[in-house]
Design goal:
Number of helices: 0
Strand content: over 45%
CATH class: Mainly Beta
Radius of gyration: 13 Å
Shape: globular
Number of domains: 1
CATH architecture: Beta Complex
Strand order of the largest sheet: 1-4-5-9-8-7-6
Number of strands: 10
Pfam families: NTP_transf_9
Structural class: mainly beta
Domain DUF427: 14-104
Largest sheet: 7 strands, antiparallel
Length: 113
């Protein structure tokens, strides 16, 4: 089994897209899975959910469960399937329930501030 660790991410974190701050949190979680880069999970309460549309896309992780996806809607574009959450995560990773993570790329930035 892949080793997954979850800890409180140190400091304050933001997620930005389309020139807008989508979320800012001092209560983000950092999930480390095997050799993969750590992923920051933002509490849903710290995300401006008005920028997110639920997507039809889903995926399954044997270690975390079934993921639901969100598209970020900015003034100029919709960034498809750019965020995800585990609505009912596997018990071992239950801390990420009610949190959303984002893919980082040219359009979406997740940064410690």
């Amino acid at each position: 089994m892949t080793k997954i660790t979850i800890r409180k991410a140190p400091g304050n974190w933001t997620v930005r897209a389309g020139g807008a701050v989508i979320g800012e949190s001092s209560n983000a979680l950092e999930l480390s899975e095997g050799d993969l880069e750590p992923v920051i999970y933002f509490p849903r309460s710290d995300i401006a959910m008005a920028f997110l549309d639920t997507s039809e896309h889903t995926s399954h992780c044997p270690y975390k469960g079934d993921a639901s996806y969100f598209s970020i809607v900015t003034k100029s574009q919709t960034i498809q399937n750019s965020g995800w959450s585990y609505e009912t995560p596997i018990e071992d990773v239950s801390r990420i329930k009610d949190h959303i993570a984002f893919y980082t790329n040219d359009l979406v930035a997740v940064e410690r501030v």
